[in-house]
Structures are given as structure tokens and as C-alpha cells.
Amino acid sequence: MREQIDLGAGNVSAVIIRFAVPLMVSLFFQNLYAYIDTVFVSWLGAEALAAVSLSVPLTYLALSLAKGASFGSVVLISYARGQGDEEGGRAVGMALLPMMTLLMAIFAPLLSADLCRAFYAFLGATDAVAAVGIGFTAWLVAGFPVMGYVFTAEALFMARGDTKTPMKGQILGNMLNFALDPLFMFVFGWGVTGAAVATFTGQLVAAVYLRRRLAIQQGERLTLALPAGVTGLWRRIVGQGVFITVAYMVSPVGLMLLNMVLARFGPLAVGAWNLMSRTEMMVMLPIMGLSNALAAFVSFNLGRGDYGRIRAGLVFFFKFSLAIVVPTMVLFTVFPRELTAVFRPAPDLVELGSAALSASAVAVLFMPALFAMNGLAQGFRRPVFMLAIGFVYIIAARVPLAYLFAARWGERGVFWSHPAAAFLAGALALALSLRLLADCRRGLAAAAAENGRGAAADG
Known about the structure:
Keywords: Cell membrane, Membrane, Transmembrane, Transmembrane helix, Transport. It is a multi-pass membrane protein. The chain is built from 16 helices and no strands. The protein has one domain (about 10-450). About 85% of the residues lie in helices and about 0% in strands.
């Protein structure tokens, strides 16, 4: 119980930091799986790196479904707890694992080598790249249900104000993945497939750890048993989470389309984009973690009817984000070659990877507005706003700009479609965030006035 944090009391900045730091660490280690795999895979050559890069959208699709269900549940449970309805929050949590397992089972057909080969062919991969990626994808898909369990357990901890226990589980799984990657890939000679086996093993250990901590700390065991009223509970989770899922899903769909553009320029272009996106993701994780914390913080205080804490939380979010973004811009601009060195790239890949990072240095300036919008939209239970921003950013802006810029400036033009789209989406996100705040203030004021009239009538 000592791990739990009261989101409705105390200094806003201190509360959010205490709640968010473990989330940041968890996200760091969650994404470290893919980053470490990319580092080791890059040592195997351009075809191996291209195979893993082309599978990234598949991982993001699974993550989109998992995040939609888990974050939707976190918001519902947090709101219920803010209103004092602990039993209602617990019912939502118990309905989550069966739903998560069904969602992850959608990818099972890709365990077939023929279907997996067709998947790579659809993305424009050569036969050589597809042959390298089939084993990797099979183990990746086999690990999705395990990943779903981890997300479910993390949601239950997070909704109760405990972000430290999920952090410990992520650290444990990643330490094992880091140790097993070189063993499976190079000592055992499993190549790219070994990277996926190591990730599967790390996630499995994290799931076992979280299962044990749930039983000890909260007296709960996650099972696939369907609780009473599961249909209604799933309907509530879907109602909150579907827009979150679709918003996150826009990214992998857009990435698949971008990969199809980049594949025309060869494996080096696909690999350069992957190196940039992995590096950018790692340095932006603190802001992503803070966005997730903001969602739970806003939802809890919305249940309490405390507009002042919600506004103060958003102001702190932007101050913190700027402290991350400015050094990142300098780092990507001044040291792009040094940042790609860890991947041991060929000279041509260094050149393209540096160009991609230079474009990313401009894009990160506008990203805090996007993540602030995500946190507010989830916290206010208005995820359609999050969906709108994701659609504008990826589908309406970045993909068309990628095709347009590619026709004029080649693969480097695709890289620069990233900051151009981020600017357009960031401006829209800021405007929508201000609207959400205004709606919240008016709604809470009207509710307070109504309660006042009711109290006067009772008197």
C-alpha cells in the first residue's frame, strides 16, 4: 500500500513527478526491448535490419490494441476511485484480461510462414528480407498474449496509484532480454529470430513477477474467467478505449505506408528511418510517461471536480516537456553521427541516419503539444480528440507530405515530412487542448451551480 499515491492532494508538481517517474522508467524499459533488438540486429547487416524495421508496424498494431484497452480501463478505474466507487473500479479491472487475450489472438494467423511471407511481400520486402524476418515475426506474435498480460497488470497497479511495481517488472524483463540477445543471436546462431526469443523470455518473466506482486500487494489474481456483467464492462472499456486504440493505430498504419515509400529507395532508407525513430522514441519517453500520468491525474481530479489541479497539471506538463525538448534538439543537430554509431552502421547508413536525425531535431519541438493533447483527451474521457490529432498528424499530413517530398527530394524528403506534419498537428493539438480546458471549467462550474441549487432547495 505504501506504493500508492493520492492524486487529489498535495503539491501538483510533486504529485505528478512522483507518479510519472516510474511510468517514464517503465516506458523506457518497455521500449528498450525494441531498441536493444535493433542495435544487435543492425550488426547482422542491412537485410536483417530491414526485416525487423518492416515488422515494427505489426508490433505497433498490437500495442495500439493493448494500450487502448489498458488505458481505457485506467481512466475508468481512476474516475471511479475519484468518486469513491472502489468496487466499480475493481470490476472493470477483472474484465480486462479476457478482453486483452482475445485482442492479442487476432495476430495468431501470422504464425503461418506462408501468411507471414505474404505480409512482408505486401510491405514491398524482397524475398531475401522476408526469409530473414519470418522466424522473428513468429516469436513476436507468440509473445503478444504475454505482452497483453503485462499491460493488464500494469493497468491495475497504475489505476491504484502504484507505478513503481510495473517499473520493476519492466526492468527485470529488460535485463534478461539484454543478457539473452547476444547469447541467442550470436552464440546459439539463431540470428534475427534469437532477438524475438529473447524478448519473449523477458516479457514472460515480467508477467510472472507482476502476477506475484498483484497477489501479494492487492490480493488479486488475474484469470481468464469472465466476471458477472462482463458484456457491460467490455462495452464501457471499448467505449473509452476504442478511440485510444484507433488513435494509436493510426501510427502503425501510417508507418506501413511510409515504409512502402522508403522501400522504393532500398533497405538503407528503411533502416535509416528505423534508426531515427528508435533514437527519437528513447529520448521522448519522459514526455510520453508524463502524458500517461497526466491522463490518470486529470481523470481522478475530474471525478473530484477540481479544475484548479487539472490546469496546474497541464502547466507543469509543458514546463517539464520544454526541459526535455530543447537539449534533444541540440543533441540531434550537433551529434547525429555519434548517435547512430551504436548501431555500427555502414557509411551510407550513417549518412542517411544522420539526415533523418537532423529532421527529427525540428519535429521534437512540436511534440509536447501532441502528448499534452493525448493526456487531456484520455483524462477528460474525450478520446475522439486524440484520434483526430493522430489522423491529422499521420494520415492527413505526414503520409501525403512523404509522397510529395519523396518525388522532389528522394528519401531525405520523406525524413523532412516528419517535422512538417508535426508542426501542423501540434498547432491543432494546442487549440484543442485549450478547448478541452474551457469545456471542463464550464462543465464543473455548471455542476457546482446545480448542486448549490439542489442544496438550497433541500434546505
